[in-house]
Design a protein that fits this description.
The complex is a heterodimer of chains A (285) and B (339).
Chain A (H helix, E strand, L loop, with lengths): L1 H29 L6 H19 L1 H24 L7 H23 L15 E4 L2 E4 H23 L1 H11 L1 H6 L4 H26 L6 H16 L4 H21 L7 H12 L12
Antiparallel strand pairs in A: 1-2
Helix pairs in contact in A: 1-5, 1-6, 1-8, 1-9, 1-10, 2-3, 2-4, 2-8, 2-9, 3-8, 5-6, 9-10, 9-11
Chain B lengths: L1 H12 L1 H27 L2 H27 L6 H17 L5 H23 L4 H19 L5 H4 L5 E2 L5 E2 L2 E2 L6 H24 L1 H11 L1 H6 L5 H26 L1 E2 L6 H14 L5 H18 L4 H14 L4 H10 L10
Antiparallel strand pairs in B: 1-4, 2-3
């Protein structure tokens, strides 16, 4: 029972980690929260659906991140860079607007009804681990989530570009004085962030449903996680996503009537105890 | 050129005092005329749209005031607007209160809620504030759909309200009439606009703008930066709640859609469209939005255009219609003092 609960919460947390660490990365570099992240995730899911119909799930899992990384580059050049000198709130509102546009265009193309795709054969069905039978696809989700999380940590920790990203996140002006090109880094980070959102979208297909409300539902969860984790802290976001997954799954088991409200209660409790979140992010006030 | 015009106008009428009283007379004539002339000229359909625009304008007013004075963007206006409607409906149908009692109860619950919520979230930075208001709004719209509250809230179907009884001598059932409702909405919207106009010029407005500019410096200077922002947050939500009460009094019906994120973004767009500086812009923006929505809504384009409008107005016309007009004419130069 406890093992199942933890496994389920890890599966949910995997998706949330991929999305919220992407949000935290952009925030670290640009001081901007991308309110359109939910829509990008939704685009990933719908693109994944279409590509999976034509060429199968695995092709979608490879192709969608590449396509969305390209979208990230466009987003960086057409939105983030020209608006660099505007206030962060204004840029955040622009991302909100772009997210609404993207979401509406997707709904216009695909219509309002929910879609679903099946997991590939190799990932469907269940296997038994320690006398417990568990869906393979969720194990796959956990592996993907924790794997990408580990890759991200390795990149940030052991590569020069990762070092630069950490430096800019910690103190943008000093990092620039040391000769770090924040614009070039931002290009990398933005495309990485949207690519991760794309992977999350494809992975969400067989696990959750693909429907027109998925963007708002997911962005709200991610924002809660980013706030709990301490805005801009990637480590904090990962811990918060794990906590969020656990609380959400435990809530639906133990408090089924209130399950929808459990994340918000968690948010309020964290805000009450630590208004800056649990991580050591670069908080403005 | 414009200065000359001003000079001669005030010169011939003599002194500041008469200008003040002239303003008051002009205002009351405007208030009365705005409340009653359209009811004779416009069709019921146009009046309905216009009233909708005024309510949205009041929401936009609350969004714009907080944005302009405190630098905070609230994305949760819908939860207060719809929440007020729900509380009134529950008060009338479930608790069997008179309309006035239901209004007061709902109002007190909302004020208590925004004080608690505000105390939690106005301490954070502006970006976190924006995220948290969005999250809080979604929380309310989830709460309404909870299975356990279905008897109270009617779930996805919403609630019908039996409108009977009277408030301050006005028969509640009369407010379903488009012409009467327009008058009511007009007067309330103008008064709300005047109230915010006054607050922006009061000490509270000055402190809010100073905190927006540099919170740390204000704290070092010995100002409490928390309480003014909390008061500002409560005030704007009071106006949003009033708009919500008016809506349910007119429609006799509340639905979960009134709590949706799209209502909050519509209010934001209306504020940006009209211009967030001053009181005229947001209300005008609400009216423009309502008529534009009628034009494009049938084709299912409202939400798409909302997104486009957010981007276009922030990037290209950050000062909105009224801001753009006033800078073009240079007539409203005084308006910028309060920005």
């Amino acid at each position: 029972m406890i093992a199942l609960l933890i496994a389920n919460s890890l599966a949910l947390a995997s998706l949330l980690i991929m999305l919220s660490s992407g949000l935290a990365l952009i925030y670290g570099l640009r001081d901007v929260i991308n309110f359109g992240h939910g829509a990008i995730y939704m685009l990933g899911a719908y693109l994944g659906y279409t590509i999976a119909l034509v060429g199968g799930f695995w092709l979608a899992l490879v192709l969608v991140p590449i396509l969305l990384a390209l979208l990230g580059i466009i987003f960086e050049y057409l939105a983030l860079r020209p608006l660099q000198r505007r206030s962060h709130i204004e840029v955040a509102l622009v991302t909100l607007g772009l997210g609404i546009i993207l979401g509406q265009v997707i709904i216009y193309i695909y219509g309002g009804e929910a879609r679903s795709i099946d997991a590939p054969k190799i990932l469907s069905g269940s296997i038994s681990v320690l006398n417990l039978s568990y869906p393979v696809y969720r194990l796959f989700l956990i592996v993907m989530g924790l794997g990408s999380c580990a890759l991200l940590a390795l990149w940030l920790r052991y590569t020069p570009s990762g070092l630069y990203v950490r430096a800019v996140s910690q103190d943008p002006s000093v990092a620039r004085m040391m000769g770090i090109n924040a614009d070039r880094l931002s290009l990398l980070v933005t495309s990485l962030s949207t690519a991760f959102a794309g992977i999350a979208g494809v992975l969400a297909g067989p696990y959750l449903s693909i429907d027109p409300g998925m963007d708002v539902a997911m962005i709200v969860n991610c924002l809660i996680i980013v706030v709990i984790g301490g805005t801009g802290s990637i480590g904090g976001a990962i811990v918060a996503a794990l906590l969020f997954g656990l609380v959400q799954v435990a809530g639906s088991v133990f408090l089924p009537n209130l399950a929808a409200l459990v994340p918000y209660i968690l948010l309020m409790v964290v805000l009450l105890i630590a208004p800056g979140g649990i991580g050591r992010g670069r908080v403005l006030s | 050129m414009t200065g000359d015009l001003h000079g001669t106008a005030t010169g011939t009428l003599g002194g500041r005092l008469s200008r003040m009283s002239l303003a008051i007379v002009a205002l009351s004539i405007g208030l009365g005329a705005g409340a009653f002339v359209p009811t004779c000229l416009a069709s019921d359909f146009v009046l309905r749209l216009g009233s909708e625009g005024l309510l949205l304008g009041m929401l936009a007013l609350s969004v714009a005031f907080l944005m302009n004075q405190a630098g905070l963007v609230a994305l949760g206006a819908a939860s207060i607007y719809g929440g007020a409607g729900y509380l009134f409906a529950i008060g009338m149908s479930e608790w069997g209160l008179t309309p006035a009692a239901a209004l007061c109860t709902g109002f007190l619950i909302i004020v208590a809620y925004v004080i608690v919520l505000g105390a939690l979230i106005v301490r954070t930075n502006p970006l976190a504030f924006m995220m948290l208001t969005l999250a809080a709004g979604e929380m309310i719209s989830h709460a309404v759909l909870l299975e356990g509250l279905r008897d109270y809230t009617g779930g996805a179907d919403g609630l019908l309200v039996q409108l009977k009884g009277s408030i301050l001598g006005i028969d509640v059932a009369d407010l379903a009439d488009p012409a009467r409702f327009w008058s009511m909405a007009w007067i309330v919207a103008v008064l709300a606009g005047l109230a915010f106009w006054g607050i922006a010029r009061s000490r509270l407005g000055a402190v809010l703008r100073a905190v927006r500019a540099n919170e740390e410096r204000m704290r070092f200077s010995g100002f409490n930066t928390f309480v003014p922002r909390l008061i500002g947050y409560v005030l704007v939500n009071v106006v949003a709640a009033i708009a919500g009460f008016l809506h349910v009094l007119n429609a006799g019906f509340v639905s979960p859609e009134s709590l949706g994120l799209s209502v909050s973004t519509n209010a934001l767009v209306a504020a940006l469209m009209g211009g967030i500086v001053g009181s005229l812009g947001p209300i005008l923006g609400g009216l423009i939005f309502a008529f534009a929505q009628d034009e494009f809504g049938a084709r299912g384009l409202t939400q798409l255009l909302t997104g486009v409008a957010i981007v276009v107005f922030i990037v290209v016309f950050p000062r909105g219609v009224v801001g753009g007009l006033s800078s073009a004419l240079g007539l409203f130069g005084w308006r910028r003092e309060a920005s």
